[in-house]
Amino acid sequence: MTLHILGICGTFMAGVAALARELGMDVEGSDAGVYPPMSDQLRALGIRLHEGYVPGHIAAGTRQVLIGNALSRGNPAVEHVLDAGLPYDSGAHWLGDRVLTGRPVLAVAGTHGKTTTSSLLAWILDQAGLQPGFLIGGVPENFGVSARLGAPGAPFVVEADEYDTAFFDKRAKFVHYRPLVAVLNNLEFDHADIYPDLAAIERQFHHLVRTVPGRGRLVVNAAEPALDRVLAQGCWTPVARFGIDRGDWQVQMTSDDGAAFRVRHEDREFDEVRWSLLGRHNVLNALAAVAAAAAIGVDPALSLRALPDFRAPKRRMEHLGTVDGVTVFDDFAHHPTAIATTLAGLRASVGNTRVIVALEPRSNSMRLGVHAAQIAPSLADADRVVFLARPGLPWDTAPVLAGLSGRGRVVSSADALLSSLLAEARPGDTVVFMSNGGFDAVQRRFVQALRERDG
């Protein structure tokens, strides 16, 4: 059958497309912009891509259309689907119906760390010989693809997003997954464009909790009051709590930067782990993945042995290079907590080395200014900040600059950002790009400019 996917270059819908292709379907799709890395992955799979939401892109023989949650009524392609009476569905419902049914599903939810934790869990299960399938909202470096079916009947790891499903289904995407094991990694207010407050998101998380069977497991961060409130609404599944020096699964940091740690569970204490990731948040991501794997029978000792060979997903403190003495990272930052924890881990690793942050407030909540008061405090470990405030940002950046106490400046374009960074950076510095968008490829343009400067 021919399947057309609207919004195909988004990380989730691109993963759905890859799975549909692996199932033998003839897949094509449209997006407002056809851009890497997902466009490269899709073309390599033989999937046809169209730029723009033009009704004519949907072929006459199309049997079904999957509609991404970024599309609304009034979109020309959506209106064509409805007027033509074409069968349509959401990506999340299609995934649950066509791929997840009958398989042990491990769903990773939370405001932060979903992509890294999902990648860790898929890697652990792979190293345990279980040949898992997965769909992850990024590209795990250990696999090189964002989605695969895995072996028939094998466990399936899915990054479980609380964002709404589609214009016709305003429930969170994760209610379609029916997991056997659900990781509740953390919970803060986000997605201010669709949720009025944290309580509304907590209700969505409880909808997920309601779908986990009694024979399954909830793996829950032991230090999150919002998750305690979620479980207080009703819980019918055994709960395994995890945390730093607390919970059923405990981790002890043996290095300040998170590069080494030791895990305890019940009466077992395991050998120290040394790995390449940094930060307390990543240690907790690893602990959650180990606990989730244990819930389906994977020995924690085996899981922990897999961690030194784990490589962080693309754009999760991805090292782009060290050129002219300047070390450059790219990070998918979308919330002040994520910014603060990432920079804390980096600071513990680099010591007194100068850290320069290029920050773009691009997530819906950041663009709306919901987290504006928390931005400057989240940048406490940065020595210099270049803040990209594109025209049309609906809030005043002056309080952020004031909170940075002379450590920051605001620019209005990616080109101005590039010029500012090149003027600022000197050998020995670490530069971190933080945005959940493409940043107009300024990260790689900066690295190239450094190479040219180095001569």
TrEMBL record:
<keyword id="KW-0573">Peptidoglycan synthesis</keyword>
<feature type="domain" description="Mur ligase N-terminal catalytic">
    <location>
        <begin position="3"/>
        <end position="97"/>
    </location>
</feature>
<dbReference type="GO" id="GO:0051301">
    <property type="term" value="P:cell division"/>
</dbReference>
<comment type="pathway">
    <text>Cell wall biogenesis; peptidoglycan recycling.</text>
</comment>
<keyword id="KW-0547">Nucleotide-binding</keyword>
<keyword id="KW-0133">Cell shape</keyword>
<dbReference type="GO" id="GO:0008360">
    <property type="term" value="P:regulation of cell shape"/>
</dbReference>
<protein>
    <recommendedName>
        <fullName>UDP-N-acetylmuramate--L-alanyl-gamma-D-glutamyl-meso-2,6-diaminoheptandioate ligase</fullName>
        <ecNumber>6.3.2.45</ecNumber>
    </recommendedName>
</protein>
<dbReference type="InterPro" id="IPR036565">
    <property type="entry name" value="Mur-like_cat_sf"/>
</dbReference>
<keyword id="KW-0131">Cell cycle</keyword>
<dbReference type="GO" id="GO:0071555">
    <property type="term" value="P:cell wall organization"/>
</dbReference>
<dbReference type="Pfam" id="PF01225">
    <property type="entry name" value="Mur_ligase"/>
</dbReference>
<dbReference type="Pfam" id="PF08245">
    <property type="entry name" value="Mur_ligase_M"/>
</dbReference>
<feature type="domain" description="Mur ligase central">
    <location>
        <begin position="108"/>
        <end position="293"/>
    </location>
</feature>
<dbReference type="GO" id="GO:0009252">
    <property type="term" value="P:peptidoglycan biosynthetic process"/>
</dbReference>
<keyword id="KW-0067">ATP-binding</keyword>
<dbReference type="GO" id="GO:0005524">
    <property type="term" value="F:ATP binding"/>
</dbReference>
<keyword id="KW-0460">Magnesium</keyword>
<dbReference type="InterPro" id="IPR050061">
    <property type="entry name" value="MurCDEF_pg_biosynth"/>
</dbReference>
<keyword id="KW-0436">Ligase</keyword>
<dbReference type="GO" id="GO:0106418">
    <property type="term" value="F:UDP-N-acetylmuramate-L-alanyl-gamma-D-glutamyl-meso-2,6-diaminoheptanedioate ligase activity"/>
</dbReference>
<feature type="domain" description="Mur ligase C-terminal">
    <location>
        <begin position="315"/>
        <end position="437"/>
    </location>
</feature>
<dbReference type="Pfam" id="PF02875">
    <property type="entry name" value="Mur_ligase_C"/>
</dbReference>
<feature type="binding site">
    <location>
        <begin position="110"/>
        <end position="116"/>
    </location>
    <ligand>
        <name>ATP</name>
    </ligand>
</feature>
<dbReference type="InterPro" id="IPR013221">
    <property type="entry name" value="Mur_ligase_cen"/>
</dbReference>
<dbReference type="InterPro" id="IPR000713">
    <property type="entry name" value="Mur_ligase_N"/>
</dbReference>
<keyword id="KW-0961">Cell wall biogenesis/degradation</keyword>
<comment type="similarity">
    <text>Belongs to the MurCDEF family. Mpl subfamily.</text>
</comment>
<dbReference type="InterPro" id="IPR036615">
    <property type="entry name" value="Mur_ligase_C_dom_sf"/>
</dbReference>
<dbReference type="InterPro" id="IPR005757">
    <property type="entry name" value="Mpl"/>
</dbReference>
<keyword id="KW-0132">Cell division</keyword>
<dbReference type="GO" id="GO:0009254">
    <property type="term" value="P:peptidoglycan turnover"/>
</dbReference>
<dbReference type="InterPro" id="IPR004101">
    <property type="entry name" value="Mur_ligase_C"/>
</dbReference>
<comment type="function">
    <text>Reutilizes the intact tripeptide L-alanyl-gamma-D-glutamyl-meso-diaminopimelate by linking it to UDP-N-acetylmuramate.</text>
</comment>
